[in-house]
């Protein structure tokens, strides 16, 4: 009997197709039951309501325990879209929340827009409206049983005790899609620190969320906690922060800077702790709380005076004559000058080969200490000229320039210091490559002479200038400035406890300190002489397209310094006009804990003295 091979082949083909179909069904069942959680989520959402419990955010105190930021209760309206569908009296709902139908429709569409709400699921709670007040919540709560699918979630929002320190404290707002993408801790409707320490210490402040699992019946009604709460997770409160700020000092600084543009920064030299950080103009941090935050933020961002800009760490200015201290330290350490034997002429400034850099009238020639005391431009221009031109020592102007640059960087300029606040700018310290590119390698000490007096291409932040004062107070080292003194239950990051030594030698610092003290007793900072705490100071008058900027840098007391301060007032004129008196008041307040009667009158005078800024293009 002959075998039918065609029949056999068909049998194999049919069997193969059957096997393939079975395999496909198995794979699909595996995907649905094991790999996908769609059905599980659907079933869970019918049986359970997983309710997030938000932790209280850590509170913030000043260095003396004075409360600055705390929490108060607020209420969010949440919606489960799968439950709210086609079962809602929209008119009554809108009346309960005092919103329009258009606003309701917009909110519902935004929730379902995955580009704005990437975590959207119709089975889980979504944010409909946030931060209801007690009054608004009470009206809604009475009618909530009529609105299936809508729930209330209690949480806390920030409250700021005082109208100052906005740039340091920062604020809290709803997370953006980018925030959610970067950290899976967050879901739409969560809050996150946006600026200041609220941002930089977000992980410590936010705590850990809790979870309640509630059981529902077939009609969606809550029956209580699943298994009496065995699987619930309690929220963990955020950690409290103690700032290095002195609240009273901060208040005085902001008061003194009313009607002015600029900054005051004070540092404790022995720790690097920032005692006050004033940026003017500023704003009341309480404007950034609640449902009015978006509107107020928009108004502030459109303000021509840029009150949202933290000029203390973001403003980049010519440091002016405060920078001469760095030059004296460099020239002396490099052997370019001898502090007592080297004197340079100053015929109302630096004059050489047709180049003139002006200076005010004073005795000349001068050695280092009186050159600092009188703020002689000629002395420091000559010092830079001889350093950049010292080919026998450096070989080329490029090597000399980069050596100079290295000294400046070691003193905290040209790069971010690393303060624990977001947005710090780095300033600018030029190097040889910068000038080679600018002048096609045809340059010398005369070409760049203005950097010797803190002008030209040199730029620094007020924080960097204050840090220079702290470094001189310490005679050659600094700690990275930081605004947080302590985090509850955590040691301070060691990055803030390590000393950073400069390239200048200790002997050079002794002479610079002597020069700054001489400036306080009879030089450009002579107003400091009337105080009893032996202050040291250095003025700066930074040239500007308009009126010059008024700059001051100093510390006190001379031998056991407690505070180093920098003052920068845009268009304030001479350093002695605004910089010195404001810096002196800050020193007195911190050292004595209060102002004398005479100083209080002086503070009121400067508070009421406003500078007219005609140019709003800032």
* DSSP strand content: 15-25%
Structural class: alpha+beta
Radius of gyration: 33 Å
Mean pLDDT across all amino acids: 90
Taking the alpha carbons of the first and last residues, their distance comes to 103 Å
Main pleated-sheet profile: 6 strands, mixed
Shape: elongated
SS element count, helices: 23
Helix fraction, binned, reads 25-40%
Poorly predicted tracts of residues: none
Determine the oligomeric state from the structure.
single chain
Total DSSP E strands: 20
List keywords for this structure.
23 helices, alpha+beta, 6-stranded mixed sheet, 618 residues
Describe the structure.
- The chain is α+β, with helices and mostly antiparallel strands.
- Helix content is 37%, strand content 18%.
- The protein has 23 helices and 20 strands.
- The strands form 6 sheets. Strands 2, 3, 4, 5, 10 and 16 form a 6-stranded mixed sheet that branches. Strands 12-11-20-19-18 form a 5-stranded antiparallel sheet, sandwiched between helices. A 3-stranded antiparallel sheet has the order 1-8-9.
- Helix 15 packs across helix 21.
- The radius of gyration is 33 Å and the shape is elongated.
- The chain starts with a helix and ends in an 11-residue tail after the last helix.
- The model has no long low-confidence stretch (mean pLDDT 90).
